[in-house]
Design a protein that fits this description.
Blueprint: E1 2-5, E2 11-14, H1 16-32, H2 40-49, H3 59-71, H4 78-84, H5 89-97, H6 99-111, H7 114-117, H8 121-137, E3 158-163, E4 172-175, E5 178-180, H9 182-202, E6 207-213, H10 235-253, E7 258-264, H11 284-299, E8 304-306, E9 315-320, E10 324-329, H12 341-349, E11 355-358, E12 365-368, E13 374-377, H13 386-389, E14 398-404, E15 410-416
Parallel strand pairs: 3-6, 6-7, 7-8, 10-11, 11-13
Antiparallel strand pairs: 1-2, 3-14, 4-5, 9-10, 12-13, 14-15
Helix pairs in contact: 1-2, 1-3, 5-6, 5-8, 8-10, 9-10, 10-11
Length: 420
């Protein structure tokens, strides 16, 4: 038996016979439609005529039918389907990338001086169109049964998983024993999952906050020299693959704990090629967030939730326990030598911080400031590369976790992931 969640948040089980009938009706409706689209209200009506009262028109049910259609080998290949469909590019963009982000971009364009920003709306449409195509190639994500376990009760300790600087799409070959590409990234993240679960069990944790703290993709044009030649995917594919990595990571953890996910943006995540052309909030992180948000809403996993920082996605400030405040920023706007970073952020946010957590510098260190407040830097999934070699930055690939104890004390821990 398979299941989906209806609009009343009720879990509905459907039989194999139900799914087989649903797929056949879907195929027939597509065959009759010039646009190859299914009118799901008509689909539900026909299902009722066949004796199945528990069909629906919502996204969860439609994905369930499509997933089964793929499983039995009756899903029309994306390229073939695209040839059959005649829809406008703008409509396709809105469907695949999300109307919310498109509207946000339109509002930004109205409010900002395009000449000063040196940007044209068509540039975003081109990127969005490529993202749509990449998503179409991998638009079915299977959710394992264990993900639907009920939410766990809160315990004394919490865990923060600090992910950053994945640079999905980057390629490193033989830099002091380090290689990196998408397949190696997946291997290192599998090891990271194992390490996270070790700390979950060791510290008896039920609640885990996962923060990806920027530079989730490599980008392809922020440096005009050799960067495009050191990437294995174009920007749209980088976005798509990074999105799937994040979803896979957090869904896997829900088998053992409650997971809250947050994303911040780094310098590699910007849409523009030059930092002086950046429009605030116009970045890859916004696209990935909306994609993951759609997945979370459709999958309706009880133990998985999102931190909403869409108003300003360059930072996350979160309270743990009674009064432990930790702020997460990528670090590209920070100077390592500045001893007053924490004080500056406290003044801006009107809160007393326990720690300021950063990535960007591709190495791990903890600096104690006044009153035991900490600057915490975590390393990159990519590890040492040709760019780092220029300034002798030879750190291993790593990520990090922070244990937040019940008494408010924190324990930052580096997780070494140096495997090829």
């Amino acid at each position: 038996m398979r299941r989906y969640t209806n609009k009343k948040d009720e879990v509905v089980e459907v039989s194999q016979e139900h799914l087989e009938t649903a797929v056949e009706i879907k195929l027939q409706l597509q065959e009759m439609s010039p646009s190859r689209r299914v009118v799901w209200s008509k689909h539900r009506e026909l299902m009722k005529q066949e004796g199945f009262e528990n069909s629906d028109v919502n996204e969860a049910y439609r994905c369930l039918v499509k997933d089964y259609q793929k499983k039995i080998g009756k899903l029309v290949p994306v390229k073939k389907h695209a040839d059959m469909v005649s829809t406008s590019k703008l409509e396709s963009i809105r469907n695949m990338v999300g109307e919310m982000y498109q509207e946000k971009r339109e509002n930004q364009i109205v409010l900002r001086d395009l000449n000063k920003a040196k940007r044209d709306l068509a540039d975003f449409h081109t990127i969005a169109e490529e993202v749509r195509d990449a998503m179409l190639d991998n638009c079915v994500i299977e959710v394992p049964e264990y993900a639907y376990k009920g939410k766990l009760e809160r315990r004394e300790n919490e865990l923060v998983v600090c992910l950053q600087d994945w640079h999905v799409g980057a390629v490193v070959e033989g830099v002091y024993g380090n290689d990196y590409n998408f397949e190696i990234a997946k291997k290192r993240l599998e090891k990271m999952k194992e390490e996270v679960l070790y700390y979950v069990k060791t510290f008896n944790v039920n609640d885990v906050t996962v923060i990806h703290n920027g530079d989730i993709i490599e980008q392809i044009s922020m440096r005009p020299t050799n960067q495009p030649f050191e990437c294995e995917f174009n920007m749209a594919e980088q976005i798509n693959k990074a999105t799937r990595l994040v979803i896979d990571f957090v869904v896997s953890l829900t088998a053992y704990c409650n997971v809250e996910l947050g994303l911040t943006s780094g310098n590699h995540d910007r849409m523009q090629s030059h930092k002086d052309s950046v429009i605030t909030g116009d970045n890859v992180t916004a696209v990935i967030y909306e994609s993951i948000k759609t997945f979370v809403e459709m999958a309706n996993i009880p133990r998985l939730s999102l931190i909403d920082n869409t108003d300003y996605n360059y930072s996350i400030l979160k309270k743990f326990g009674k009064d432990t405040y930790i702020k997460f920023v990528h670090g590209d706007k920070e100077k390592q030598a500045d001893a007053n970073k924490i004080a500056s952020h406290e003044s801006m946010d009107n809160v007393e911080l326990t720690a300021l957590v950063m990535g960007h510098f591709h190495s791990h260190k903890v600096i104690d400031r006044n009153f035991s407040k900490k600057e915490i830097y975590f390393g990159s999934l990519m590890g040492r590369n040709d760019y780092a070699r220029n300034f002798k930055g030879m750190s291993d690939a790593s990520q990090g976790v922070i244990v937040v104890r019940g008494d408010g004390k924190i324990i930052p821990i580096e997780v070494n992931l140096q495997i090829n």
